[in-house]
Amino acid sequence: MTEIRYFLMLYVRSVRLIWRQITNFQKGSKEGMVEIRGDKDWDIPTFFMDPCAGRDQVVNAVQAGGWKHFETPMPQYFAAAVKQAQKGLIVDVGANTGFYSLLSLCVSRRMKVCAYEPFPPVFKILQENIIQNGFSKRVTISPFAVSNANAVSTLYVPDAGHGLVETSASLNAEFKEHIGGHQSVTVRKLDDLHPRGSKVAIVKVDAEGHDLDVLLGAETLIKRDRPIVFVEVLPRADQTGLTDLLQRCGYQDVALLPNGASQPGNRVVYEAQAWNHMWVPQEKVIPTV
């Protein structure tokens, strides 16, 4: 009897060990990851990101000051927009290593994400961050660049001398003074990627100077689904083109200043202290934080 109990005990331990290994394989081991704590009212209060040995600037910022301290105050307004929508699809263009995708999946369990990141080294980090958090069933990640055409184009990458994870590859050849390299990349329109199906609740665009082209390729989607749109407006941005699109779609522009949101307006104007803007349909309530 003693030997039987002993072997049963070994069997149970072996089964538990195998199950733990399977679970870790499916969800990813969080060893070496940085834990990012959100608000208590989020459906999932924490998520994890790979610091890339201190080379991920996004992780460095949130590790030092919390989830609100990267691109303040955009994360707060982004989370508020997710809470307001509660369910639907988030389109994350220029997802980089996944901060906004992960944040949205934690704020509401009913959200799904389609993330686009065309730069292969960063795509791999994004993919791993999604796996490590166990979100693979709620996220589709694609290595496409997004624009106003379906084609093959050139992705320009800045000089890598800074030694950090690159955050600013672009289809715009003039977005940086010094280009370190370039590569061919598949380009798709959001209107063709999302012609129907799950309603798009939020669109986030960070395309390093190519943002207007991304939104022009999503004009049908924007008019149909009326999502909240987060867009980066850089110094060289085509403010006239952005304003024309804003007005055609029936939206208001809100600049996300360090001390809070500006008053909504019907023109897109570059703000030195607020590169991130939020577009809100005229018929919707502006998310508050």
Automatic annotation (TrEMBL):
Please state every residue range assigned to the domain named Methyltransferase FkbM.
92-252
InterPro entries in the cross-refs = FkbM_mtfrase, SAM-dependent_MTase, SAM-dependent_MTases_sf
Q: Output the superkingdom of the source species.
A: Bacteria
Q: Which Pfam families match?
A: Methyltransf_21 (PF05050)
Protein name (Swiss-Prot/TrEMBL): Methyltransferase FkbM domain-containing protein
Q: Which organism is it from?
A: Acetobacter ascendens
